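User: Quick one: structure for sequence A, then sequence B.

Assistant: Sequence A:
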Amino acid sequence: MKIGFVIRKDCKRCARLVTRILEILPPDWETVFEKEAAKFLGVRGKDIERMEADIMITIGGDGTVLRTLQMTKSPVLGINMGGLGFLSEVEIGKVENSVFKLIRGEYTIEKSHKLKVMVNGIRLPDCTNEVLIHSNQIAKIRRFSISTSKNFIDLTAADGIMVSTPVGSTSYSFSAGGPIIYPTLKAMLISYLAPFIARSRSIVIPPQDQINVKVIGKDSPCLLIIDGQYTMQVSSSDDIRITMSENEARFVTMGSSFFERMRDKLIKNVVD
């Protein structure tokens, strides 16, 4: 077994946790370290996209999980050192127990589809959570045309348009009032950010379709942001197309169900 380690940037606590995990892992298991972890551990590191591992252990928050999933096809086991940590399977108090489960093979791999994002025919990094097209200026509303490959959906004014995966439906889309979609379902979710017309509601699109987003207006620059990790500027001259990717996000799970995580990390936090 080969384990890769990725930690949140400039997090010494995360690096110390890597050291503790290394003390538990069997001596015959191989390890590889992303450069950020390596600089704290005094070992040689690699860029994430050059790391080959059977399982990648991320230590940080959901941003660390998303950064890793964007650059590797390996299954990811997230250890939460951040806030909500919905994508992280393991909380800080259960690390040792979870590592022993990993050693015993008491885990499963849960798969969820990603989104393929094309701008002017050029493929951008795949998306695990959401693709956001947002005004690049605070308090400057934008107009968007949204359609599928066969049907016009809407012409709307809003701060932004978001296309999410089912996994992403529990993230930014959820805070924007979108529905929760079970993570293994194949679908795409369109949500609006601060729409000018209150009738605008989230729409679930089937997986075989294509979503086209067009910024309306010559002087209406926007930012296209993928998973909060990749950003580029787009305008009315750009052709944005979003479809299902052939690639999947793979998560290591150890018994907790999606509904348990939903109750513990979304509903409970709202109620509390």
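Sequence B:
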Amino acid sequence: MSKQFIQSPIHSGFGSQTTAQEVLGRLSLKGKVAIVTGGYSGIGLETTRVLANADATVLVPVRSLEKGAAALKDIPNTELIPMDLMDPDSIDSFAKRFLATDRPLHILINSAGVMATPLRRDNRGYESQLSTNHLGHFQLTARLWPALKRATGARIVSVSSRAHRLGGIDFDDPNFERKTYDKWKAYAQSKSANILYALEMDKRGKAHDVRAFSVHPGLIPETNLGQDLTEEERGPKPIKNEQGRYVSNEQNAVFKTVEQGAATSVWCAVSPQLDGLGGVYCEDVDIAEAVPADSTRPDGVRPWAIDPELAARLWKLSEDLINIRFTVD
């Protein structure tokens, strides 16, 4: 039986220092099929490694087959298929190849993303962070829907960010066609979109036993996500202490390893603790707390990212932008 959407911690027993492997424990994923976008670098690569080593078959979309093959050469049970999230035809081609195998899709982890990039646009003229982080994943999920439904118990995980607290969706000008481009506002918009999408996806999908979650992985210095940032633009700075662990030069900022950063995604993808739940934003391997819009806390989820009316509105906007009707019947 489905439980009501409730954005409140369940006290999972895990925490900010839990690793993805610790979340998984001895759970076998034999017979399960997963797709992990961004699954050949950073926390996506660790997510792939942990799932594949638990005997799941993990498909990894890659822009470069050469780079993907090099990253995954020591990981079993993986398959590489070309795909570019900013190219709608590429997404359709990937989904068509997967659906042709007639396999169910038990886990879809939308982990790929870009952050605070200079103004770039895809071939449709859409701003690159919205295009990559949200619209590409929205289209991918729509195309893979038959396989998700067939899995009888699929989970979709969208990797968001605490940066959603910097702002929500500008429904009047989502692609910065009229207002001045602000790369952090664009990033925040795309990450708020990830959370709203999971909320609406779960609402529509749960009748088919498909549940959706969004996650903040944490602050992880050992990835290339911030490759477009200057040193001055970076937020909390990672500093290694005498034990070689990353700490921060800012109060209340906690850095994670890649292994810890992948933990919440893996938890949302496989944990029985979340059976019957969905639509929630998670962090530190638990459901996050809902906090007021004016909260100065770095954690928690803001109201504009968990508003059901905004979630439904974003779904419609996304359908209009990609010119696809995403129905789940």
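DSSP finds nine helices and ten strands in the chain. The chain has one domain: 20-219+261-322.

User: Thanks, that's what I needed.
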